Amino acid sequence: MITIIDYGMGNLRSVQKAFESLGIDAKISTSPGEIAAAEKVVLPGVGAFRDAIRELKRLDLVGPIRHHLAQEKPFLGICLGLQMLFDVSYEDGEYEGLGIIPGKVVRFPETSGFKVPHMGWNTLQVVGEQPLLANIPRDAYFYFVHSYYVAPTDESWIAARTDYIHPFTSMIRRGNLFATQFHPEKSQRVGLQLLKNFADV
């Protein structure tokens, strides 16, 4: 069973439907107890960092997330769910994150010939062997939509980079903690394969 954290923001149903299309049970939950006890957790998200962190705290979900990660159970963050794992975000101010991964969330620089947000399909420059990318071609395209990206201070967290304006971290992994800047639930066949790989971890 996959437990998808509901904090009132994001693409919860599309993530759930993606798992269900694979024949994988996935439930959406706001319950701190359910999330703390979950076998596998997904933290998705679309929207503003400040509002998302505020809602996680208001719903008493920060503790269960930390508890799940401390037990080294499989965890997948998606887009904003990746960014919230970091120490700090500079999205429209300065806001403290969950502090799980050392580093910051910063905005793409305004650059001639490039649009911000980064929106559309792009490839990954994979670092090492990544279980979430098993049975996925190295030149596969994934779907992105974001104006901010993560900058870890410890590069050993980096599982993949993507080139847009400059190379940025597009996937994180340490042990059973996985997180992507792209949206696997919107990335068609290769995205479904990634979600299947997560369910199989």
Can you tell me about this structure?
- This protein has 201 residues and is an alpha/beta fold.
- β1, α1 and β2 form a beta-alpha-beta unit.
- Helix content is 26%, strand content 34%.
- The protein is globular.
- The longest helix has 13 residues.
- The chain has one domain: Class I glutamine amidotransferase (GATase) domain (Rossmann fold, 3-Layer(aba) Sandwich), CATH 3.40.50.880.
- It has an eight-stranded mixed β-sheet with strand order 2-1-3-4-14-13-12-9, with helices on both faces.
What's this model, at a glance?
This protein has 6 helices and 14 strands.
The SSE string, one letter per element, is EHEHEHHEHEEEEEEEEEEH
Identify the CATH homologous superfamily.
Class I glutamine amidotransferase (GATase) domain
User: How many whole angstroms does the radius of gyration measure?
Assistant: 16 Å
Q: What top-tier CATH class fits best? A: Alpha Beta
- Structural class, judged by helices and strands? alpha/beta
- Tell me the strand order in the biggest sheet: 2-1-3-4-14-13-12-9
